[in-house]
Amino acid sequence: MTAYVLRRLGLMVPTLLGITLLSFALLQLVPGDPARLRFATAEQSGDVAPEAVERLRREYLLDAPLWKRYLHFLGPFDLSPRGARFAGGSGERTFGGLLALDLETELHRPHVRVADELGRRLAVTVPLALAALVVAYAVAVPIGVLSALRRRSLLARTSVLATFLLYSVPVFWAGMLLQLAFGQAGLGWLPALGLPEPGADSLLARVEHGLLPVLCLSIAPAAYLSRQMRAGMLEVLPADFLRAARARGLPERTVILKHALRNALIPIATLSASIVPALLGGSVVVETVFDLPGVGRYAYEGLQQRDVFVVMATTTLAAVTTCLGILLADLLCAALDPRLRHD
Fold first, then answer.
1. Does the residue 12 lie in any domain?
2. What is the residue range of 192's domain?
3. Within 10 A of 60 (CB to CB), how many other CB atoms are there?
4. Residue 209 and residue 139: Cα distance in Å, rounded?
5. Looking at residue 195, what DSSP letter applies?
6. Partner of 39 for a Cys bridge, out of 48, 89, 294, 325, CB 3.0 to 4.6 A?
7. Would you report the helix, strand and coil content of the chain in percent, each value rounded to 5?
8. What pLDDT does 83 receive?
9. Would you say residue 10 lies in a domain?
10. How many angstroms separate the Cα of 280 from the Cα of each of 91, 148, 327?
């Protein structure tokens, strides 16, 4: 198993390089000049000199060839005018880029380092995504199992219809409905926007502010996983090994929970590889609707401002999360099914 994990980690390297290269190339096709966008307000009033725009382009290599800009982002050497001497820089900074764990500074806020801001926003997004993942599985597995065991009952038919409808609901619409229902405009039970005030930064306040975003973020995954759980159980229930377990005199509860459920969970565990990145992607909409300063909103703001360093940092983070999610799904499948284990 150790050799298998190391081999998979090694394969992530070319995968991530390919993703960053493709993302960087596609980002250059987005219309808009990042340097002019930074000075947009000043240009309208005529207070910015053209030399300032050109200086910004030179400093961040916005006027450099595409290959040089990508190598500067990738690292481990800084190719900017203040970078490594062998690349024509001043020698102030020799190392930089992704491989040097240096994600540069924001274009619109040069005093803010992207890595620091990304870490601060991860503290908002990661708890939301993990909580939504737990809620989705906690709701989906029981509903899927019960609807499969009682597939001709009213409960099963209602759950199938409900999950189909919930999966079809757009995330932004669900978020606004939750705000109208439970926010100040409705029942007033829960805060609908932002994070707790600094003076009220307690666990209870964080839970209250996170309930609606977590619920909104977990609706679609829970609906999808419950349908997959039901399909997996329906496929496993007629299997011969369950008949053999019943023939040995095992209680029906043990047959279902220990034998049927364990095998039906294999495809659900595999889906975790796509659910985790989907939660991070869905956080773009959820964090915008609920006014949360998370990674998804950071990526959206960076794309609006054409900040290549912010967009590439968030894209690389999403790619790493996806690769690790696939590896985690493989390990979960191997734990559930001994036939899939690797020596």
1. no
2. 114-340
3. 23
4. 21
5. -
6. 48
7. 75, 0, 25
8. 77
9. no
10. 38, 30, 17
pLDDT digits 0-9 by tens, 2-30: 776 777 778 788 888 888 888 888 887 77
Residues 55 and 175 in one domain: no
Domain end residue (candidates: 100, 130, 155)? 100
> How many angstroms separate the CA atoms of 41 and 39, rounded?
6
Q: What span, in angstroms and rounded, lies between the C-alpha atoms of 174 and 179?
A: 9
| Residues 309, 258 share a domain | yes
Q: Cα torsion for 300, 304, 306, 310, to the nearest 10°?
A: -20
Asked whether residue 26 is domain-assigned, the answer is: no
Please list the ranges in the chain whose pLDDT falls under 50.
45, 343
Amino acid at residue number 36: R
State the Cα–Cα distance between residues 209 and 114, nearest whole angstrom. 26
Q: How far apart are the C-alpha atoms of 32 and 62, rounded to whole Å?
A: 12
pTM above 0.85, yes or no: no
**Separation between Cα atoms, residue 194 and residue 292, nearest integer Å:** 5
- Complete DSSP assignment for 81-145: TTS-GGGTS-SS--B-BGGGTB--B-SS-TTSBHHHHHHHHHHHHHHHHHHHHHHHHHHHHHHHH
Centroid of chain to Cα 270: 17
Instruction: Looking at the structure, tell me whether residues 67 and 126 fall in a common domain.
Output: no
What pLDDT was estimated at residue 99? 83
**Shared domain check, 301 and 178:** yes
